[in-house]
Structures are given as structure tokens and as C-alpha cells.
């Protein structure tokens, strides 16, 4: 019985994967008029200026999308893909700010924990003024 359920579940997963990767169907020719004569007379022709081409995606985004793969080489999807792209576009972690280098205690040791967080927050607020 378990083999039956496992086989059925695997088949449903395979069909779902196949449908997810299938290209979208284009509009049928009957739905869109081929010639202006087929358009009703009451409907004016759309001006060419109102038809906007989609903006090209930045090269960094497409590169980040290509890098959004899991450890097995399969493309990520959903929240994992979004997170991966956001991380990629943000680049590497920013270099330590000037405030982080100043975060040193009275004894000369670097601050840590809440003291460091508080110091950096105050330092950045003062720098913004």
C-alpha cells in the first residue's frame, strides 16, 4: 500500500514539474484581429505611443537569477530564490564602517554585543547630522 501511495505521489510531482516548465500558450489568432478591417468601426485604432515595450531587465538581476541554484544544481524557487537574488544584488557584506573601527572600550579592547551595537548606532546618528 505504501508503494502505491509513493508511486502516485511521484507521478503527481512529475506532472506538476512538467506543467511548471511548459511555456505559456500564446493567444489564438481568432482572439486578436489580424487586420485593421476586422476591428469594429466604433473602436479607434490604438496610437503607437501608448504601446510600451517591456523594460529590459538589468544584467545583474539575470546573473543573480542564474546563480540562484541549490547545492544539487537545481534552480531555487519561491522565498529561497528571492532571498538568494536579494543577497546577490546586495553584493558582498559592506566593509566595516568607520564607526566599527572606533568601537573600542576604555581598556583598548574592541566592544562586543549590546555595547558595540549601541556605540555604532550613536556614532552613525552623529555622522548623519
Explain this structure to me?
By secondary structure, the chain is an all-alpha fold. The chain has 5 helices and no strands. The model has no long low-confidence stretch (mean pLDDT 73).
What is the gist of this entry?
This protein has 129 residues and is mainly α.
Main attributes of the structure:
129 residues, mainly alpha
Q: What is the residue-mean pLDDT, rounded to a whole number? A: 73
Total DSSP helices: 5
Beta-strand fraction estimate? under 5%
Rounded radius of gyration (Å): 28 Å
Estimate the helix proportion, in percent: 40-55%
Order of helices and strands: HHHHH
User: What's the main sheet like?
Assistant: none
**How far apart are the first and last residues' alpha carbons, in Å?**
70 Å
Stretches with pLDDT under 50, minimum 5 residues:
none
Shape: elongated
